Amino acid sequence: MVLGSSLQHQRTVKKLTVLITPQVSVPMRKVLEKVFDEILLVDVLDSGDSAHLALMKRPELGVTLTKLHCWELTQYSKCVFMDADTMVLSNIDELFEKEELSAAPDPGWPDCFNSGVFVYRPSIETYNHLLQLATEKGSFDGIRETQLRNWNVRCLP
């Protein structure tokens, strides 16, 4: 609610789409309908890689793979993904002018990007590739610099 409301408050002209999982209650879905233009139901994608996540003391990060569903939004040519715990303090519509894949560097992992906010182009091919990569490489929360170069990631200032 905070993310959607803050985007509205900053007068975005972009369509607001939220991805929700089946665990979101029907009453909450009704509330979300008041803030977002489109609500899409997606399945939870859990890495099940408790070993790496336990090392970081972040077991909840296993379900962050669920955000990969954003690449299925092929009805859009370009999107800005924002985690639900993001609060927008100024208009961010200019992010749509950035190239794919633009993201902020992660302060805790200097050779990684933060996946909480990023610019991307939806693609079923990319979605399938990311699912395969997650299956083969596990859920380590951090994409290494060599993978960033392969994906042509641009870090936002």
TrEMBL record:
Stored CDD domains: GT8_Glycogenin
InterPro entries: GNT1/Glycosyltrans_8, Nucleotide-diphossugar_trans
GO molecular function per UniProt: glycogenin glucosyltransferase activity; manganese ion binding; protein homodimerization activity
Cellular component terms per the entry's GO annotation: cytoplasm
Superkingdom in the source lineage: Eukaryota
SUPFAM superfamilies, A to Z: Nucleotide-diphospho-sugar transferases (SSF53448)
Transmembrane segments: none
GO biological process entries: glycogen biosynthetic process
Protein name per UniProt: Glycogenin 1
